[in-house]
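To the wet lab folks,

You asked to see what we're planning to order before we commit. Fair enough. Below is the target structure as tokens, and below that is the sequence we designed to fit it. If anything looks off to you, flag it before the synthesis order goes out.
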């Protein structure tokens, strides 16, 4: 049976999950293994790309990465975009922020979700993804609550 384009659409990935491909974190091995099994182009918004760049800069500032390793990680991120492992996804920010506000109003009192987590789930919904990749428990609960299939590599 032939897959439809919708069924074949890869999950929307939280930048915190993607960061594990560039920084050594406890879940990095699971994320690398998942990415090896799922090599398709992942949608990354401009906001998510900025989050990744900033997180790598913060890792240098904190001393988790040397300045050289930080530059190498940024070069790897740029290479992943150039090679088509990521695709730049554009969202309508007014609609996305309105959706995020609705999610915050409805779910934050019960789930304790952070603004950045809500924003990423809103992006996934606005981009019409059906699944969401995250390692964050509250973000996972939010994704499930709004009808997304939540994926956590290694679990």
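Sequence we intend to order:
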């Amino acid at each position: 049976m032939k897959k439809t384009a919708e069924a074949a659409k890869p999950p929307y990935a939280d930048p915190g999950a993607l960061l594990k491909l560039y920084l050594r974190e406890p879940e990095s091995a699971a994320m690398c293994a998942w990415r090896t099994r799922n090599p398709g182009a992942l949608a990354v918004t401009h906001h998510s790309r900025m989050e990744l760049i900033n997180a790598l800069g913060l890792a240098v500032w904190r001393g988790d990465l040397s300045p050289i390793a930080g530059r190498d990680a940024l070069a790897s991120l740029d290479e992943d975009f150039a090679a088509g492992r990521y695709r730049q996804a554009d969202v309508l920010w007014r609609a996305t922020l309105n959706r995020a506000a609705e999610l915050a109003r409805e779910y934050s009192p019960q789930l304790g979700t952070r603004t950045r987590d809500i924003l990423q789930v809103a992006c996934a919904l606005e981009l019409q993804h059906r699944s969401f990749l995250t390692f964050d428990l509250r973000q996972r609960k939010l994704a499930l609550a709004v009808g997304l299939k939540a994926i956590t590599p290694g679990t």
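Structural context that might help your review: The radius of gyration is 16 Å. The domain at 5-151 is CATH 3.40.50.1010 (Rossmann fold).

Thanks,
Computational group
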